[in-house]
Structure formats: structure tokens, C-alpha cells
């Protein structure tokens, strides 16, 4: 797979000297769903704004579909659809005009059938002649999505698409996102919620304080999450792991009075039974046994905590 | 050129104008009629003719200019300020359109509406006074140039303004006085000599004079000077807009 969005050392210093992005490099692969996870003020919106053209980067370069976002902004931007975090919409305009306007703005010829399809998909068709100000917040969010989809983007940015959205619409939204992905659209979404990233993403990127801390396959993260540790407390301290137990990759705890064994809960066999009987065979006396598990949340908090 | 985008912006803006039909077209007609009643009938009954034209007819070009200038500035400044204010500017900035295309869309729509208002006022004027237009083509040309140059100015103001007060400030403090003092309702030659000299620094004088020439075939300043003034003014606006677009001034952070 090749990168459709490629950011190199992107830095943004806002007027007033605030470093919102610190040399961010990120490759987003064609056709994937990437979730950008990060706390408030991490720089998620800033990164998206730089890629989409609302904010000028202080330094660094970005290309979208091979087009540099500055030198060939038309090539780059005509591939991009953006659903902003804020509900920014012309309040007095009719829904359908607002959506058609977006298509025109992107230079695409009029296509009433396409607009109708999108509005129906988003359950907005019966609201097409309503003024935007007459809509609820969730409906406005859907209008923003319709606007972004109106010009058939190849790369779709969803900046906190589920903020203020009920469970029902959230499901619909994931349905649409999966449908787009099946059509080969690359999707980047930002969120504060780990479950959301877990539910929908192929890869998860963690951003904090203007830095990307990690970008990993969700499966890989899940595997880390699926790993558990068995902590075996011993009656008497030991200095080295008996050679006969070498196959278990045991680690001696800090106090020398415990052994740590990592295993995969989803593996066919965890090897715990064998380990315990082998320990007994080596004459080691166990005092206590406990397990611990790291969740994506732990990983996330750990990463963000370390960086702070 | 992304012509589809220009068209989309233009139509979007024109829809907004027609949605507010009352403010857009009825109020200029009403206020012009009031000017005719107050200036034309009340004052006109005391002043027979100005430069051989009845006072009622004499103020028509000035009245049209007054409306067209204020309308162009207001339309264009509001047109680009509003998306900044409500945040929909994100869409313009993230679309594959150049700033020039954005400008053509907004300025084109603002100028079109001002032109319509100007023509409606001209139509209204025929109801109140006898009018013969000496140079109709030149009249339309002057009207068009004024619409476009003041829409450019409005566009600059709209980008510059950070709040609604600032949006009103320039039209209120600069444009209205310049237009009133630019000979809309009187001939420059009616002023004392000192004021005549000062008035010559007012660019609006040249526009109104040229426009009046198109109506009556008489001008206070030469027509060449009038054209030069419009060209300079338009050039200055385009230069400022060029700079804004280059730097992203008050559009991008
Ligand atoms: N126009 C601006 N001028 C100055 N600072 C800004 C501007 N926009 C954002 N910032 C700052 O940059 C930092 C990153 O903001 P950004 O909006 O990118 O965060 P975010 O990750 O999207 O947060 P959230 O989850 O709250 O949406 C914040 O500290 C913010 O205050
Ligand atoms: Mg944000």
C-alpha cells in the first residue's frame, strides 16, 4: 500500500508563539481508516487544518495523492473532503442548496442524483428544503457530512464526527464510513474516545502536545492489550531463572522474590499449567499468584503521561 | 480557472440577496424617493436650474452614485465577512479554488446587485423628473466601473474587519462623507473657492462628475481625469487584494 497523505516534519507555531505542531511526520495509507486519538488541545484540528488548507504550516511539507498542498493545491484539495469540528453552516440557506454549493465549489458538474443519494443515506432527504437554522445539532452535523461527500472525495477528514451525536446516528455514521472505505476512500477521524477508535479504525495514531506519539495497527494494539502478565511471588528470593525454565522467558522482579510471565490470552494455550508444574518441579515454593492486563486506555494514558 | 466554483459562489450570493429582497431592493427605492421629495421638491422649488438642468434632474446622477457606492461596499464587505464570522470560510479555504476565483465570485455578485439597485433608482427617477440621457453607453460604463471598484473596496473591508463595528466603520466614516461632499447634490462651482480646491482631493468628485457628464453632456472636471481617477482607485484596490491573497492576511492563521 502507498501513502495517499504524506506529512513531513510539519511544524505550526501560531501567532503569539504557541507550538501547536512539533515536527509531525505521518503517512496515511490509501484506503485505510486512521483514528487520531488525543486529548483537548493536542493539535488534531490544527494538523487537519494544515492538510486541508485553512492554516499555513510554519515549516515542513505535505502531499495528498502526490500533489503538494501548496504548489499544487488544486490537485491536492480536489481529493479532500472535510467535516469540521465546529458546526459552521450558513443558517438561512436551504439544506439542499448548501450541499449543492459545496459540489460546485469543488468544480464538479451538477449531479442531482448524487446529491439525492447522499441526503437519503444521511436521512436528510425530507429536510432538504428546510433552512439550516431549523435543524437540530445532530442534523447539522449530518449536513456537514453531506457537504463533504457531495464532491466525492478520495480522502475524508472527520474532525470529531461523533461529538453531540446520539447512539443511533453514530451507528449510521459508522455504516457510512465503512461503505466509503469499501469504495476505497481513505478516512481520517479524530476522537477522544478509545472505544470509537477501536470500533472503526484500521490504525490508531496517538497525538499529544503537538507530537505524534505512536501510529500502530489496531490489531497490534489489540494484541498488546490482549497480553497479560502473570506475577508469581516466591517464598524465597532467587538470583537467576533456573535453566530448565528458559523456554518461558521469565523475568525476575525487582525484589528478586517474584517472577513475571507474559502470555497471550487469545493464544491457543497460555502455558500457565505447564509453567506452574515446572516451577514445582524446580522446587520453587509459590507464595501468591496474580495477573495484570494493559488496556488501550493504559497504553494511551501511559504514552500521554510520559510525554507530559 | 475553476469556473464552476465562481458560478457556485456567485449564485449562492445572489440567492442571499434575493432572499432578502425587501432590504435589497425596496429600501434603496424608498430612500431615493425620499431624497427626491426632500431635495428635489423642497429645495428644487427654490433653485431653478443648476448648469442649465432642473435641480430635480441634476441630483439624479449623484443619487444613483450615492446608492451604488454604499450598496457595492456594503454587499461585498458583508458577503466575505459573514463566512468569516460564522466559520463557513473553512469551506472556501479548503476548496480547490484560488483567491482570485473567490474574489471574482463575491465581487461579481456584489457589483451585480449594486448595478440592479442603480438601475431601479434610475427607473424611479423617471417617475419624478424629466430625464434625457446624453450618452447612455458611457452612463452604463461609468455605473459598471463604480460598482466593481467599490465592491473591490468592500471586499477589502470585509476581510479586514474583525467585528461588525469595524464593518460599518469605513462606510460610515469615509465613504458617506466623501460621497456627500463629492457634489452629489450640488455643483462644485457653487462652493467658495477654498472648498473648491479641497474638494479636488476627493476622488468621488471625479466619479460623480463623469457620471453626470454621461447624463447631461457637461462635466465639472474633464472626462479623462474622471477615467484616470477610477482606474487609479481600482488599481489601488486590486493591489491591496493581491497583497492580502499573497499573505493570507486575516483569512488564514
Ligand atoms: N488560531 C489559533 N491561534 C492560536 N492558538 C491556537 C489556534 N488554534 C488552536 N490553537 C492552539 O493550538 C493547540 C491545538 O489546538 P487544536 O484545535 O489543534 O487541538 P485539538 O487536538 O483539535 O483539540 P480538541 O480535542 O479540543 O478539538 C491548542 O492549545 C490551541 O489553543
Ligand atoms: Mg479539535
UniProtKB/TrEMBL annotation, chain A:
Gene3D superfamilies per UniProt: P-loop containing nucleotide triphosphate hydrolases
Arranged from A to Z, the UniProt key words for this protein are: ATP-binding, Nucleotide-binding, Transport
Q: Where is the ABC transporter domain?
A: 5-234
> GO MF annotations for this entry?
ATP binding; ATP hydrolysis activity
Q: Which SMART domains match?
A: AAA
Tell me which InterPro entries the record gives.
AAA+_ATPase, ABC_transporter-like_ATP-bd, ABC_transporter-like_CS, ABC_transporter_ATP-binding, P-loop_NTPase
Q: Name one Pfam family in it.
A: ABC_tran
* SUPFAM superfamilies according to UniProt: P-loop containing nucleoside triphosphate hydrolases (SSF52540)
Signal peptide region: none
Q: Which PANTHER family match?
A: ABC TRANSPORTER ATP-BINDING PROTEIN
Name assigned to this protein: ABC-2 type transport system ATP-binding protein
Taxonomic lineage is: Bacteria, Pseudomonadati, Pseudomonadota, Alphaproteobacteria, Rhodobacterales
TrEMBL record, chain B:
**Protein's UniProt keywords contain Transmembrane helix:** yes
Q: Name one Pfam family in it.
A: ABC2_membrane
Entry superkingdom: Bacteria
Checking PROSITE patterns in the record gives:
ABC_TM2
Which is a Gene Ontology cellular component entry for this protein? ATP-binding cassette (ABC) transporter complex
Start and end of every ABC transmembrane type-2 domain? 19-248
- Which residue ranges traverse the bilayer? 21-43, 55-82, 114-133, 140-161, 167-186, 198-215, 221-245
Principal localization reads membrane
Q: How does it sit in the membrane?
A: Multi-pass membrane protein
Q: Which GO terms describe its molecular function?
A: ABC-type transporter activity
Q: Which UniProt keywords apply?
A: Cell membrane, Membrane, Transmembrane, Transmembrane helix, Transport
Compartments reported by the entry: Cell inner membrane; Membrane
Q: Which family does it belong to?
A: Belongs to the ABC-2 integral membrane protein family.
Protein name, entry field: Transport permease protein
Which organism was this protein described from? Litoreibacter meonggei
Amino acid at each position: 500500500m502507498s501513502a495517499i497523505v504524506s506529512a513531513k516534519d510539519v511544524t505550526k507555531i501560531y501567532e503569539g508563539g504557541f507550538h501547536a505542531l512539533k515536527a509531525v511526520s505521518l503517512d496515511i495509507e490509501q484506503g485505510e481508516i486512521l483514528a487520531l486519538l488525543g486529548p483537548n488541545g493536542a493539535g488534531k484540528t490544527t494538523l487537519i487544518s494544515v492538510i486541508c488548507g485553512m492554516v499555513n504550516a510554519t515549516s515542513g511539507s505535505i502531499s495528498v495523492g502526490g500533489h503538494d498542498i501548496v504548489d499544487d493545491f488544486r490537485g491536492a484539495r480536489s481529493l479532500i473532503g472535510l467535516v469540521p469540528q465546529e458546526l459552521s453552516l450558513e443558517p438561512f440557506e436551504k439544506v439542499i442548496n448548501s450541499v449543492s454549493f459545496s459540489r460546485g465549489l469543488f468544480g464538479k458538474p451538477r449531479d442531482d442524483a448524487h446529491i439525492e443519494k447522499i441526503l437519503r443515506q444521511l436521512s436528510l432527504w425530507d429536510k432538504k428544503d428546510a433552512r439550516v437554522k431549523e435543524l437540530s445539532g445532530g442534523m447539522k452535523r449530518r449536513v456537514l457530512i453531506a457537504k463533504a461527500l457531495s464532491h466525492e472525495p478520495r480522502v475524508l477528514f472527520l474532525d470529531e464526527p461523533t461529538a453531540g451525536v446520539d447512539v443511533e446516528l453514530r451507528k449510521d455514521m459508522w455504516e457510512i464510513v465503512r461503505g466509503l472505505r469499501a469504495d476505497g476512500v481513505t478516512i481520517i477521524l479524530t476522537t477522544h474516545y478509545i472505544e470509537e477508535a477501536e470500533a472503526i479504525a484500521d490504525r490508531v495514531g496517538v497525538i499529544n502536545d503537538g507530537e505524534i506519539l505512536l501510529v500502530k495497527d489496531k490489531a497490534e494494539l489489540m494484541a498488546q492489550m490482549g497480553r497479560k502478565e502473570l506475577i508469581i511471588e516466591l517464598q524465597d528470593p532467587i538470583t537467576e531463572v533456573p535453566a530448565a525454565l528458559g523456554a518461558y522467558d521469565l523475568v525476575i522482579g525487582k525484589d528478586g522474590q517474584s517472577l513475571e510471565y507474559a502470555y497471550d490470552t487469545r493464544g491457543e494455550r497460555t502455558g500457565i499449567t505447564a509453567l506452574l508444574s515446572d516451577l514445582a518441579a524446580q522446587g520453587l515454593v509459590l507464595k501468591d499468584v496474580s495477573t495484570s492486563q494493559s488496556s488501550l486506555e493504559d497504553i494511551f494514558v501511559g504514552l500521554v503521561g510520559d510525554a507530559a | 480557472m475553476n469556473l464552476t466554483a465562481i458560478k457556485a459562489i456567485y449564485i449562492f450570493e445572489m440567492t442571499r440577496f434575493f432572499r432578502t429582497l425587501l432590504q435589497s431592493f425596496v429600501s434603496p427605492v424608498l430612500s431615493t424617493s425620499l431624497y427626491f421629495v426632500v431635495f428635489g421638491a423642497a429645495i428644487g422649488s427654490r433653485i431653478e436650474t443648476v448648469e442649465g438642468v432642473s435641480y430635480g434632474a441634476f441630483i439624479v446622477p449623484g443619487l444613483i452614485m450615492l446608492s451604488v457606492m454604499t450598496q457595492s461596499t456594503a454587499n461585498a464587505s458583508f458577503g466575505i465577512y459573514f463566512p468569516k464570522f460564522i466559520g463557513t470560510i473553512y469551506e472556501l479555504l479548503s476548496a480547490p479554488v484560488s483567491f482570485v476565483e473567490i474574489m471574482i465570485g463575491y465581487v461579481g455578485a456584489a457589483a451585480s446587485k449594486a448595478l440592479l439597485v442603480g438601475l431601479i433608482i434610475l427607473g424611479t427617477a423617471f417617475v419624478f423628473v424629466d430625464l434625457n440621457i446624453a450618452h447612455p453607453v458611457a452612463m452604463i460604463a461609468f455605473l459598471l466601473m463604480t460598482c466593481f471598484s467599490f465592491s473591490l473596496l468592500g471586499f477589502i473591508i470585509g476581510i479586514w474587519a474583525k467585528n461588525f463595528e469595524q464593518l460599518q466603520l469605513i462606510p460610515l466614516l469615509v465613504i458617506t462623507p466623501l460621497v456627500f461632499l463629492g457634489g452629489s447634490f450640488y455643483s462644485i462651482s457653487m462652493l467658495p473657492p477654498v472648498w473648491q480646491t479641497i474638494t479636488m482631493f476627493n476622488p468621488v468628485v471625479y466619479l460623480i462628475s463623469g457620471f453626470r457628464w454621461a447624463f447631461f453632456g457637461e462635466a465639472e472636471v474633464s472626462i479623462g481625469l474622471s477615467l484616470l481617477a477610477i482606474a487609479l482607485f481600482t488599481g489601488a484596490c486590486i493591489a491591496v487584494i493581491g497583497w492580502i491573497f499573497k499573505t493570507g492576511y486575516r483569512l488564514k492563521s
